[in-house]
Here is the input.
Amino acid sequence: MALLSVERLRVEFPTRRGLLVAVDDVSFAIAPGEVLGVVGESGAGKSLTGAAIIGLIDPPGRIGAGQVLLDGRRIDNLPAEAMRRVRGREIGAVFQDPLTSLNPLYTIGRQLIETITTHLDMSPGEARQRALDLLAEVGISAPKRRIDHYPHQFSGGMRQRVVIALALAAKPKLIIADEPTTALDVSIQAQIIALLKRLCRDHGTAGDHGQHLARRAARPRPGGSGRHPAGLGAAAVRLRELRAAAANRCA
Ligand SMILES: Nc1ncnc2c1ncn2[C@@H]1O[C@H](COP(=O)(O)OP(=O)(O)OP(=O)(O)O)[C@@H](O)[C@H]1O
Ligand SMILES: [Mg+2]
Here is the structure.
């Protein structure tokens, strides 16, 4: 069974001049362990598709039709509180700008530990150890020292690693990443892609705590509108380049 199934999704915004349909009839499925890249020209609806999956479409925007299933269970019609739990616990999210995901007023340790204790049955001590392990796993050196630092004390690439640790904190089954490397230097981009690939590989085989990664970026999706073939081709090349760069780093 598919881990995530998006069926005939439509996202719309009521406006004074009528209904604006931003995402129209999008369907895809992601199997456990699978990485799916979503491609499309700017404004195609990639970010809104991701936002719809995790229940973060700003009103008056709404899912106008279709459904989203996680492990066969519908999640597009859950009450806000239930959706919040799905978001933290079952689906992790990584966005373009790490600063929007981190609270500048709290140490990264506090943010990690809060997320862990909210979603997993762990004591503060166990949660702190898990936070340290996560920081090490995403490649932050000297985690015992760094855990008490604030977001502004990290470089952009390191902050995005922290965000990835945060996304993994509650052992989600799926990660939605919306252009997770766009705001970073080119050399750092390859490192972050390599990290995401490695995490997906390592956790994807880890039995029922497996993590599965849906990587979303500026790239076309087969079966899309096909209205801008030239732009789509260019983006597809970029995906291959990124994959090649990531593979080299892993090797
Ligand atoms: N709050 C909103 N109100 C009205 N229209 C919106 C709103 N948010 C997004 N849209 C429209 O929905 C469409 C899809 O937006 P989305 O952000 O998903 O594009 P995208 O594919 O992620 O583009 P990019 O590659 O530039 O990030 C765009 O045409 C956008 O103008
Ligand atoms: Mg976008």
